[in-house]
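User: These chains co-purify. Model them together.
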Amino acid sequence: MNAPLIIFFVLAAMCVLGAISLILQRHPIHSALSLIVVMVALAGLYLLMGAEFVAAVQIIVYGGAIMVLFVFVIMLLNAGVEERTNLSKLAGFAGIPLGVALMGFLAAAVARSQDMVQVATQTGTAAPTKALANLLFQDFVYPFELTSFLILIAILGAIVLAQRENA
Amino acid sequence: MVPTHYYLILSAILFGLGVVAFMFRRNIITIFMSIELMLNAVNLAFVAFSRALNKLDGQVFVLFVIVVAAAEAAVGLGIIIVIARNRQSLNVERVDLLKL
Amino acid sequence: MIDFLIQQVAQHAEILITLVKIAILLFVVLTVNAYLTWFERKLIAHIQSRWGPHRVGPHGLLQPLADGAKFLLKEDPTPAGVDKFVYYLAPLLALALALTSIAVIPFGPDPLHFKGHDIYLGIVDLNIGILALFAITALGVYGLALAGWSSNNKYSLFGGLRSSAQMISYELALTMSVVGVLLMAGKFSLRDIIDAQANSHGLFNWGGIFHWNIFAGPFPQILGFLCFFIAAIAETNRAPFDLPEAEQELVGGFHTEYASFKFAMFFIAEYTSMITVSCLCSILFFGGWLSPFPASWTFTTYLPSLLLIPFGLWVIWDGMRYETIFGKLILPAVGVVVTALGAAFLLFPNVNAFVQGPFWLLSKICVFLFVYVWMRGTLPRFRYDQLMSFGWKLLLPASLANVVLTAAALLWRGN
Amino acid sequence: MSILNYLWIIPALPLLGSAVNGLFGSKWPNKIVNVVAVGSTGLSFLAALEAVREFTHLAPENIPWVKQYFTWIIAGDFRAGFDLQIDHLTVVMLLVVTGVGWLIHIYSTGYMAHEGGYYRFFSYLNLFMFFMLILVLAANYVLLFVGWEGVGLSSYLLIGFYFLRKSASDAGKKAFIVNRIGDFGFMLGMFLLFRTFGTLDFVPLFAKATPMPADAMGHLGMFTVACLLLFMGACGKSAQLPLYVWLPDAMEGPTPVSALIHAATMVTAGVYVVARSHILFTHAPTAMFVVAVVGCATAFFAATIGLVQTDIKRVLAYSTVSQLGYMFLACGVGAFSAGIFHLMTHAFFKALLFLAAGSVIHAIGGEQDMMRMGGLSKKIRWTYVTMLTATLAIAGFPPLAGFFSKDAILLSAYQSEHGGRILYAFGLLTALLTSFYMFRLIFLTFHGKPRYDEKKVHVHESPKSMLVPLMILAVLSIIGGWMAAPAFFGSPDYFAKFLEPVFAQTAGGAEAAEAAAQALEIPLAIVAVVSALLGFAVAFWLYLKQPGKPAQLAKSMSGVYNTLLHKYYVDEIYNAIIVNPLLWVSTSVLWQAVDVRAIDATVNGIAEGATDIGDGVRHTQSGNTRSYAVWVVIGALVIIAIIFWPYFRPATVGMVR
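Assistant: Joint model of the four components:
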C-alpha cells in the first residue's frame, strides 16, 4: 500500500462520491458542485499519472469555464429543486438497474481484459508538456485548427440561440 | 505504482454513474451535467491508456474532448435557455413534443 | 520521550518544515492584509484630502486590529431561506483558494540553510506553477458566484451573475497575456521564469532592468503586461472593475448578506488575491527578485539598509513629537526595530546578500499594491456593458496580438 | 490541324446550334435564329467538305479512319466508345446529309417564316442533323444506335411540331412506336453480334466476321439471324413492309421536315445500316434474299398505293417508300454500291420533290389536295420547272440521276441468282408505276384548268430562300447520276469504284460482273426508259386528254380503287389484329387485373403493413428523453456484450484484484 495507491483511492473515492451525489442531489446547484468535486479529483488523478498539463487544463477549462457556465445558467434561470414527475415509467423502473448493469459490464470487461492493458503498463513517465505541444502542433495540427472552427461556430450558435427574437 | 486497470475500472464506474444520472434525473441541466460526467470518465480512460502505452496521443485526445465539451456546453446551454424561456420548465418530461 | 519526538521530527522534517512555512506565510499574509486595509484607507483618504483613520493607535495603526476584533465579535445573522450548505461553503471556498494561490509564489532565489535542510522561500515550486495558479484563480469564481446565489437576495444574485460572467470573460485575456512570457521563458515554473529573465539578452545588454520581460527582447511584453494587469484587476474584482460588489447599485453585491467573519473571509480573500496578482506581475514581467541595476553596481546591495535606517530614524523622530503617550512609546520602539534591522543588514554581508532578492520582490509588490489602491482612489467604475465590450473587444484581441507578435519575434530571432 | 483529328466538330456544330436556339431562341427575332441554325449547319457542311478533301489524301492503309475520343460505356470486356469513323461510305452519307440538310435549312427559313415556334423548329432540325451525323460517323453499333434513336426522337418531335393538331401528335406517336418495334429487333441483333464477336466496333467486328464461313441458303445461322434482326430495325426506320405505315402519316410534319427526314436522310438510315454491315449480310444469303424480296414487294406495293392518292405529300411519301424499297432491293441482290448510289440520287430528287411540293402548298396557301390544284405551271414557273426536273429524274428518264441509279439496281436485280427475273420484273413494273403517278401528280398540279377558287386563293411564287435550294437540288438531280454514266461506254462506274474499298470483299469480282453487265446494260436501259415513257403516256392520256376518265375508271373498278385508296386497309388490319387486342389486354388485363389487383395491392399492402408496424412501434417514441436514454443504454449493453464476449467466458481467468 504505497503512497500513490493511497492517493489514488482517496481521489477515486472523491470521484465516485461526487458522481453519486450528482445523482442524488435534488438541486442543480448541488449537482454542479458535486460535479466540480469530481472534476477536481480527476485533475488530481491526472497529476498522479504525470499528466500535469491535462490536469491544469481540466481544472481551468472544465472547472473554471464550463462548470461556471453551468452555474451561471442555473443562477440565470433560477432553477429550483427538480419536480418529481415520473412520466416515463420505463426510465423510472429500468433506469437504475440498466445503469448498474452497464457499469458492471464495463468494469467486468476491463477487469477481465486487464491482461490486454497490463502488458503495456509501465511506469507512467511524466508527460513533458513540450512533447505534448509538439504532438499537438505537428501531428494533430489540422484537427487542432478544426477545433478552433468548431469553437467559433459554437459561439455563433450560442449567441443566435440565446438572443431574444425582438432584440 | 497504480495499475492501469484501476483507472479503467474507475472510469467505467464513473461512466455508468453518468448514465444512471442521465436516465434518473429530470432536470435538463443536470442531465447535461451527467453527459459531462461521462465525457470526463472517457477522458480518464484516455489518459490512463496514454500512460499505459507511453504515448501522448491519449492526452491530445483528452484536450480535443475538452474543447468539444466546451463547444457543446456553449450551444447546449443556449438551447436550455431557449427551452426554459419558451416552456417555463426545465423538466425534460415536460419537453416531449416528439411524442406520437 | 523527548528524543523520540526529536527522532520523529528528524524523520518527517520535510513535512514539518513545510507546515512551519505555511504557518509563517499565513501569518505574514494575514498581517499584510490587515495593514493593507489600513494603507488603502489612509491613501485614499489623502487622495481625497482627508485624514483617514487616525484615532485607533498612532496614525490609526491599530485600526486593523480593531476591525479584526469587530469582525470576530459582531453578530452573525443567517438570512432566511438561504441554501445553508452553499451559503457557508462560499466564503470558505473564496478564502481557501485565495490563500492557496499564494503557496505557489517563490519569494527568494537561494535557500535558507538550517540543520542541513535547504529551505526555499515559498511553499511549493511546481513545474507547472503558473498553470496551477491559473487553475486556482479559475476556481475562485465559485466563491463569489455561489455566495451571490445562495444568499437568496436579488442584489446578491446580480452580484454573483456579474462576477461569474466578468471572471470568465477576463480569464481568457489573463491567460492569453501571459503566453508571451511563457514563450520567452519556455517554462511554466515561476522560478524558471525569473531565472530566464536573469540571463535573457535584452534590447541592449546594459543589464538589470532591461533584462526583465517588460523590456527584454525580442519582444518587450509591455502590451502583455498592460493586458495582464488590467485583466488581473478585473479578476480580483477591484475598482474600476468592482461591479460584483458595486455598493451604489447592489448594496455590496455578492456579500450583501454576509456579516462578521464570513464577510471578513471575502475581504481577506480579495486582498490576498491582490497580493498574489502583485507577486505575479513582478515575477512575470518585472524580473521577480532581480535587482533593477546591473550586477556591477555593488553599492546597490546596500539599498535596503539605506532605505530602512533613515525610515526608522524618521519614525523615532516622529514618535518623539506624537501627541499621545501611547504613540510616544510605541512609535520610537518600532523605529528602533527598523533601524536595527537596517543596521543588521549592514553588519552581516551574507544576511544582506540573502535579503537582496526578497527585498526587491517585496518592494515591487508594494509598488503594485500602491497602484491598486491608487487606481481605486482615482478611477470611476465601469458600466457593465462597457466592461464586457472592453474585455471582449479590446483586451482579448490585444492579448492575442501580443501572443502572435511575441511568437513571430521569437521565430525571427530563431529559438 | 487536320480536321480528321477533330471529326467531332462536324456533329458538334449542329448540336451547338440546337442548344443555343433551344435555350435562347425564344427571345430572339427570326433573323438571329436563322443565322445560328443555318450558320451551324453550313459550317458543319464546310467541315464535312474539308474532312472529305483530307480523306481523299489519306493513304489506303489508314482507311477506314477511326478516331477514338472517349470511352462512353465500359463494362467487363464490353467497351463502347465515342469513336468516329470515316470511310468512303461515310463520305457519301456525310455529304448527302450535310449538303441536303443545309439546303433544306435555307429553304425552311423561307417556308417556316410565318409559323409559330420558329426557334423550336430550327432547334429540332439542328438536333436532327446532330444525331444523323452521329449515326453516319459512328464507329460502332452502339454509337450508331444512339444516332439511330436520336433521329427517331427528333423525327417524333418534328412530326408533332403542330402538336395542337391531334392528327399530328398521333402521327408522331405512331412513328415513334412503330420505330420501337424495329429498334427492338435492332438491339437484339446488336446483342447477338456482341455475344458472337465480343465487340461492336465495326473494324474489328468485320475483321473477325470476314473469314468465317457463310450460312447456307435457307439455313438460319448466326449471321442470318443477326442480319434479319438488323434488317428488322432497318424496316422500322426505312419504312419497309410491314412497318412502313408510319411514314405516310409522318407527312403531318412541316414539309421541309418531310423532305429532310422522311425522304432524304433519316429513312435511308436503314439502307445505310444494311450497307454498313454488308459483310454480315453477304455471309447470310437467306437474309439477303429476304431483304431483296421485302424491298421489291415494298416498292411495288407502295407504288400501287401511290397511284390513287390525292394528297400531294402522301403521293410523295408513298413514292419514297417505294424508292426505299428499290434501295433495299439493290442491297438484297448484293449491289450495295448501287443501293447507296440510288440513296444519294434519291436524296437529291426526292428532297427536291418535297421542297417543290412545299413550295406549291406555300403558293396556294396550305392546300395539299391535288384535286383542288391544277394549272399552276404559269403562275409558279420556277417551282414547276424544278419539280418537273425532279419528276423526270425519279421516273428515270436519261440522262437524269434517277435513270442511272435505278438502271444500276434493275441490272443487278436481273443478274442476281435467286429469283432475279421476278425481282427484275416487279422492279420494272414499279418503275412504270412510278413514272405514271409522278406525272399524274405533275399534271394534276400544274396542268389543266384551275380547280381552286381563284378569287380566294392568290397564288404567288415562293421567296428566293426557297427557290435557290430548289434550283441547286434540280441541278444536282440532273448531274447527280453522271458519275455512273461511263458504265454505258464500257469504262467503269466511278461511283462503284469510289465505294469499292468498302464493298470490295462483297463485290465478288466486280470486274467480272461489270464485264457480264456490259452486254445487258444497253438493252435493259432501253426497256426501263420505255416503261417510264409508257407510264408518262398513260398519265398524259388519263389526266390531260380525258380528265373525266379517271373518275369512270375509279367507278368501274371501284373494288381495286377503294382498296388502293385505303392503302389495302393495312392500318385497319393492324388496328384490328394488333392495336385493339393490345389495347384490350392492357386496359382490362394489365391495368384492371395486374396493375390494380396485383401490383397496387402489393404496394398498398406493404404501405399499410408499414403503417401498422409503425403503430405498434411508435409507442417506444414517448418523446421522453429519459426513455430514449434507456433504449440507448440497452443498445450499448448489447454491443459491449458482443465485443467483449471472449472476456466474459468463465474460461478466461483473471478477476479484478
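The longest strand of chain C covers residues 112-114.
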